[in-house]
Amino acid sequence: MTRVLIFTAPDAFGVMEVDAPAERVVSTINRGQWETYLPDEPGPLYARQQGQVVVVTLSAPVLAEDLPKLSRREHQVLVLLGDGLTTAEIALQLGLRPRTVRGYVASMKARLEAHNIQQLVARAVALGLFRPEV
User: What is the mean pLDDT of each run of 10 residues along the chain (134 residues)?
Assistant: First the structure.
């Protein structure tokens, strides 16, 4: 079984399990035959594999030069947000002030056009800025 994250809108995604290897799911969707595994989704769709997870979006991949640039510290904060930690817990773990962590989060939300932390993490995963732990 392969876990598939489907991003059908910038702020919405679904999760489903597909009974096929991840590589086959990706190649089938990218050949334009997404109905094979995702019959209820409008197309065209694009898929990429991230570890054992397949991420599906409505558009082709974003070029690397178009991706927002994150500092090392912002990336650390993003990964910890993806792990479900609060800004206070992240501050404690990284030895920062909570206000500093909130500043990193605000900066990343602005660059990724996210309205909340869940949207920030979802968009970062969709853009390939980090890979969630499965």
Answer: 79 83 86 82 79 77 65 93 93 96 96 89 83 66
Nearest to 51 by CA among 87, 119, 5, 95: 5
Is residue 90 domain-shared with residue 116, that is, in the same domain? yes
Domain boundary among 57, 85, 104: 57
Reported pTM:
0.55
CATH number at residue 84: 1.10.10.10
Q: How far is CA 69 from CA 11, 27, 36, 44, 107, in A?
A: 20, 29, 35, 27, 11
Which residue among 57, 78, 100 closes a domain? 57
Over the Cα atoms of the chain, what is R_g?
A: 16
CA distance 18 to 9: 21
Q: How far apart are CA 23 and CA 78, in angstroms?
A: 27
**Per-residue b or e along 46-64, where b marks 16 or more CB atoms closer than 10 Å to that residue's CB:** bbbebeebbbbbbeeeeee
Structural domain contains residue 133: no
